[in-house]
Design brief:
It is built from nine helices and eleven strands. It is α/β, with parallel strands linked by helices and about 240 residues long. α7 runs antiparallel to α8. It is globular, with a radius of gyration of 17 Å.
Length: about 240
């Protein structure tokens, strides 16, 4: 499985990286890994830097995006530290070379780490500006042959509208890729969703703030929203 964690998830109720929140995430990831599920992770960096916001303030877009990529490396290292303090071997691979602190992204090496039971954390996005970490998640998931993308958010799925603003908003249990694109639902950007659709890669959107939800979604419990082909069998059921 490929787990996509937003930068905001690292902040908890603060800004930056909250150690206790990061530790709690690591505990859930460790539980699933010890149960035999291979896990790769893509992290965002919005808790530290948002390129889009700074671009709107007048900064060069490419520069702002590169700074956002560096922010994801900070989160990746924090998560790696938390995992390894729990005895879970992990590797951080970055799309921008920084040999002193992480491995460069090499597909075959990433797959080998997963085969050896290590958690692989992908940082620095795709290494290119103008691409989101959602696109990174879709790309890396396809490259390492993941069964699904688990998109961890602060909301328990995809809604017809923002549930915080619209009390009548209802949650979708299942959606087709084209429905997401045609409705303009803010799940992942269109580039990443199209990549998932082209490769029949399911996306499960769920609330990571609820303890145990990573395990529940992998074991096939009906939580969150499943995005995939209408005729496909949802991923889960306790299989790695």
């Amino acid at each position: 499985m490929l787990l996509k964690i937003s930068g905001e998830a690292f902040a908890g109720d603060r800004s930056g990286v909250d150690i206790n929140t990061t530790q709690a995430m690591a505990e859930e990831i460790a539980e699933v890994r010890r149960a035999g599920v291979s896990i790769a992770i893509v992290v965002g960096g919005g808790n530290i830097w948002r390129g889009k916001v700074h671009e709107e303030a007048g900064m060069d877009r490419a520069t702002a995006d590169y700074m956002g990529m560096l922010a994801t490396v900070i989160n990746a290292l924090a998560l790696q530290d938390a995992l390894e303090r729990m005895g879970v071997p992990s590797r951080v691979q970055t799309a921008i070379a920084m040999h002193q602190i992480a491995e460069p992204y090499i597909r075959r090496r990433a797959i080998r780490h997963l085969e050896k039971g290590r958690v692989v954390i992908f940082a620095a996005g795709t290494g290119n500006p103008y691409f989101t970490t959602d696109t990174t998640a879709a790309l890396r998931a396809v490259e390492v042959n993941a069964e699904a993308i688990l998109k961890a958010t602060k909301v328990d799925g995809i809604y017809t509208a923002d549930p915080k603003k619209d009390p009548l908003a209802t949650r979708f249990e299942r959606l087709d890729y084209m429905e997401v694109l045609q409705r303009g639902l803010e799940v992942m950007d269109s580039t990443s969703m199209a990549l998932c659709m082209d490769n029949a890669l399911p996306v499960i959107v769920f609330d990571m703030s609820v303890p145990g939800n990573i395990r529940r979604v992998i074991w096939g419990e009906a939580i969150g929203t499943y995005v995939g082909r209408r005729d496909a069998t949802p991923v889960g059921g306790g299989k790695a």
